[in-house]
Design brief:
The complex is a heterodimer of chains A (502) and B (440). Chain A is built from 16 helices and 22 strands. By secondary structure, chain A is of the alpha+beta class. Chain B is built from 16 helices and 4 strands. In chain B, the strands form 2 sheets. A two-stranded antiparallel sheet of chain B has the order 1-2. Chain B has a two-stranded antiparallel sheet with strand order 3-4. In chain B, a hairpin with a 2-residue loop joins strand 1 and strand 2. The interface between A and B is large, with 52 and 66 residues.
């Protein structure tokens, strides 16, 4: 009997070995997979017990801070609410919802794990504290942007609007405001319209209109095919891709230089120019400016979209419910109308701010960024975000020519409303046809019962002191000329931001 | 060193464990430090010493390691229960420990010669079966069955798990029955080269197989059934030394379990949760895989060394009313909490403690000189090991989860009481086996 008892004990040892092997499967070998399992909320809940770091504006004002909630947990408070909601985002862990910097800088805000967590973990005690994230955002300019956009909404019937301001030399984003915004202290109450969780500055699909002529001009000049003094036929209408294309009011300009064509935003020059330059050259320069990629911003990828030719279901072979980006070289694309920022081209205000920022920085595009540094509770800088070059889009000489052309736009062209005294602002207007009408439905591209709705754009920078570049967009204004509605906003934001700097 | 002094020294690890454990919980909850809670630790340790003194007087020759091992497990258990469920539950656990020790003493005194138990074997087996059937008796039936299995009865405010006692009763019966019939079962006529035991001796064993299946059907409990049936096969094997019985038994059980699991909805869902704990539908279903999946997440959080004592997240922070992340953290799922806080190393140490306890039980069986004692000690040790296997295997997904307790560690009165009876019997067998006058 004793022998069978020993064998039985052998079986028991075997069974316990199985238990140890299985325990090690879950604790060690499969642990990472289990921790990444979408059902696993442990990490989420653990973070509620951490006092997350603050998110600070460039002047040190707290945009997000942690306040005590019951049961040893912390909750977030956003003192500025809707003013910075799009940029800062929110953090509702119980529902697993995070947005904005709260998401893209979550690991810093939670404090990176330090030291050994061991059996003695309980003895190091005390609540965990995360690091502060210092942003580049400027509350004064941001507030002004909101005031001006809200004014445009109430007085010009704009349904939405965005302002993005970037320091061209560093990529630091000083202003990123879009309306409608929401109160990030209570995002669940947000109801469309009048409130939106979508950040129009990085997520809207907007026709850029004539602001895109900057990209076309860059392609024309930097490829050495043309100079600012190249002469074009500015008569209206012309036929592009088999359809007639007109200037504003069907005005014929006669023989004009490229500078003049940009100054007066002459479609009948730029559309044929785009066709001549061709899809592949246009495609190359769009790539250089960052089109067809999500902006390299330290912001959640799910809250940004790439700019480019965008086709919806049923068009250009798209069978999906989601829109599809198609290169300009595709046969679906009307290159001439792309060159004037129409056709199926959609952009974000952030992308257009990148375009004007590259031109202002002598052709060098810097990666936009919202964070300047990460500082721990001891005041030590844990991470300082260095400016990163994205691409040298064009030669500095070409950029200088383009800058001068843009100065002409503000001095004597479509953008004179941005011409503030003491600031030699250079810029480009955009009046993008949305194809919608104020009243009734469009007939053959015209609005018989009222005014057409346009997206009003202005992108610009101060030529004498190019330390800021701005893109302003106002959505669906009846006869929404960019020069009339968007240009003054851009000028005031530039003025404020320059006035603050030493 | 004499055996009893070794036993006393063996209590030192238990005392260290309980002091360190309570100290850790205090530091973790520094805001609720109170001397009252410290007293529980001291009282608990005092009880262990009282137990030792009792053994010193009544069972002077018994194995010196069994009681300290039980004390280590119980001390570890009360610290865990205190950490998980708070002072009230820890006090109740300590109270049950007192009652358990009393029952232990009572068992030792009443059955001074435990072989008297053999005279009552049919009474014992019938009582055990009746006990186990109680949870299905109308009126005693627990309104909400725990984890879909019928394992508890309610008497007034008292909850009682009769299967815990049933397991001890069945082992006593089997040890006694097989002592008488082992020769006959081992022999028998050869049919087609296989030595077929006489049917009349096999009958009661078939009956027990039937009981195991009935547990499945009526108690909806794969784990308990596995535990009893495994114990039966263990004793049967040791009694007859015939591996073929075990093989036939395993096949018969597997066939029965497969048939029933595919035909009884509850067992079916239990098996589904076991196989696919992360299926979103099963995860959110009531009585689905939520518990199992979160147990695994807790173990994954533990890693090699654990998050540290008191660091496991058991509830949704700030939730009112308290929402448990791991349902039943102090009872069924206590192993996952231990693994979370002490890691693979802590969990392995716990399992090895159980393994050593079983080893001492088997040692007692080997030293015992009569068949009944051998079979009894074997059966009790095996069923203890199987209970650990069923619950730990359940939460680690070796087998489908069944809500049995982790002996001496989980919170629960009936479990402590029954296991103290089990330990009392083991110590009595050991004491008798090691008595010097028999050695000559």
């Amino acid at each position: 009997m004793n022998r069978s008892i020993i064998r039985l004990f052998g079986v028991v040892i075997l069974l316990f070995t199985v238990l140890i092997v299985w325990t090690s499967r879950w604790t060690v070998f499969d642990a990472t997979a289990l921790q990444n399992n979408s059902l696993n909320k442990l990490e989420f809940f653990a973070t509620e017990k951490i006092k997350r770091g603050r998110i600070l504006a460039d002047n040190g004002a707290a945009l997000a801070e942690s306040v005590r909630a019951g049961g040893g947990t912390w909750t977030r408070r956003y003192p500025y609410g809707s003013l910075f909601a799009q940029a800062v985002g929110y953090n509702v862990l119980s529902q697993g919802q995070r947005d904005g910097l709260e998401w893209s800088r979550a690991s810093e805000l939670l404090g990176k794990p330090t030291g050994l967590t061991s059996v003695f973990g309980s003895f190091n005690g005390g609540p965990k504290v995360g690091d502060d994230v210092h942003t580049t955002l400027d509350p004064k300019a941001q507030r002004l942007a909101r005031q001006l956009v809200v004014y445009a909404q109430s007085h010009y019937m704009a349904t939405a609007g965005s302002v993005v301001a970037i320091v061209p030399q560093t990529g630091a984003v000083k202003v990123m405001y879009s309306a409608p915004s929401y109160n990030d202290n209570d995002p669940s109450k947000c109801k469309f319209p009048g409130c939106s969780l979508v950040n129009y500055a990085t997520q809207a699909e907007l026709p850029p209109g004539s602001t895109f002529k900057l990209v076309t001009t860059t392609a024309a000049l930097n490829s050495r095919k043309y100079t600012p003094d190249s002469v074009f036929n500015g008569n209206s209408p012309v036929t592009v891709s088999g359809h007639s294309l007109e200037n504003d009011s069907n005005y014929s300009y006669g023989r004009v230089t490229l500078t003049k064509a940009l100054t007066d935003s002459i479609n009948t020059v730029y559309a044929p120019l785009g066709v001549t330059l061709g899809g592949s050259l246009m495609q190359e320069y769009m790539h250089r400016f960052g089109f067809y990629s999500v902006p390299p911003l330290d912001y959640p990828a799910k809250q940004m979209i790439a700019s480019g030719e965008r086709f919806y279901k049923g068009f250009c072979g798209n069978r999906l419910d989601t829109p599809k980006l198609v290169p300009v070289t595709s046969s679906c694309v009307d290159v001439g109308r792309t060159a004037i920022g129409q056709a199926n081209l959609t952009v974000t205000p952030m992308q257009m701010a990148m375009v004007v920022s590259a031109i202002a920085n002598d052709g060098k595009l810097m990666e936009p960024r919202l964070t300047s540094k990460v500082v721990n509770t001891d005041g030590q800088v844990v991470d300082s975000v260095r400016p990163q070059e994205y691409d040298q889009v064009m030669k500095p000489k070409i950029a200088a020519e383009l800058q001068q052309m843009m100065r002409d736009v503000v001095e004597e062209g479509t953008g004179t409303a941005a011409n503030l005294e003491g600031l030699s602002i250079a810029g480009k207007t955009g009046t993008a046809s949305t194809g919608l009408c104020e009243h009734g439905l469009p007939v053959n591209g015209n609005c018989p019962d009222g005014l057409p709705l346009d997206d009003a754009w202005f992108v610009g920078f101060p030529l004498n002191d190019p330390r800021i570049a701005v893109a302003v967009e106002l959505t669906d204004i009846p006869n929404g000329y960019g020069g009339q509605f968007a240009a003054p906003i851009a000028a005031k934001v530039i003025q404020t931001l320059l006035g603050e700097k030493p | 060193m004499r055996a009893r002094n070794r036993e006393l020294f063996g209590l030192i690890p238990a005392s260290l464990l309980i002091s360190a454990g309570f100290a850790a919980v205090f530091i973790q909850r520094s805001n609720q430090l109170s001397t009252v809670s410290l007293v529980y630790g001291g009282v608990f340790l005092g009880l262990c010493v009282v137990g030792h003194i009792f053994i010193r007087i009544t069972l002077p020759h018994a194995d010196p390691y069994i009681f300290p091992l039980v004390a280590v497990l119980a001390c570890f258990g009360i610290v865990m229960v205190y950490r998980i469920d708070g002072a009230t539950f820890a006090r109740q656990q300590a109270q049950w420990f007192v009652v358990g020790l009393a029952l232990f003493a009572g068992t030792v005194i009443v059955f001074r010669d435990y072989r008297k138990l053999e005279n009552y074997r049919y009474l014992i087996v019938i009582a055990s079966i009746v006990l186990m059937a109680l949870p299905r008796v109308p009126g005693l039936e627990y309104a909400a069955q725990t984890n879909g299995a019928y394992l508890e009865i309610h008497l007034g405010s008292l909850t009682f798990q009769p299967t815990e006692f049933g397991k001890v009763g069945l082992v006593i019966f089997l040890a006694s029955y097989l002592r008488d019939h082992r020769q006959a079962l081992a022999g028998g006529r050869k049919i087609l080269g296989y030595r077929m035991p006489p049917l009349k001796h096999l009958g009661p064993l078939l009956l027990l197989w039937g009981i195991a299946m009935l547990i499945l059907v009526f108690l909806h409990d794969v784990g308990s059934s596995l535990m009893f049936y495994g114990g039966l096969l263990a004793i049967l094997y040791v009694a007859t030394n015939r591996i073929s019985f075990v093989l036939v038994g395993v096949v018969a059980f597997a066939a029965g379990a497969w048939y029933l699991s595919t035909h009884i909805p509850h067992i079916d869902s239990r098996v589904d949760a076991w196989l696919h704990p992360f299926d979103p539908k099963l995860y959110t279903a009531p009585g689905g895989s939520f518990q199992l999946a979160n147990g695994q997440f807790a173990m994954a959080a533990g890693g090699l060394f654990g998050q540290g004592f008191g660091q496991a997240m058991l509830t949704v922070p700030g939730s009112h009313p308290v929402a448990y992340l791991i349902p039943a953290p102090g009872t069924d799922m206590i192993y996952t909490v231990i693994t979370d806080e002490l890691g693979l190393f802590g969990a392995t140490a716990l399992l090895i403690t159980y393994l050593i306890l079983c080893a001492r039980g088997f040692k007692a069986a080997i030293l015992a000189r009569d068949s009944f004692s051998k079979l009894l000690a074997t059966g009790l040790s095996a069923i203890l090991a199987l209970q650990v296997f069923v619950i730990v295997g359940g939460v680690t997904r070796v087998i489908p989860l069944t809500g049995v307790t982790l002996p001496f560690v989980s919170y629960g009165g009936s479990s402590i009481l029954a296991n103290f009876v089990l330990v009392a019997l083991l110590l009595m067998v050991s004491d008798r086996a090691r008595r010097p006058e028999y050695a000559r």
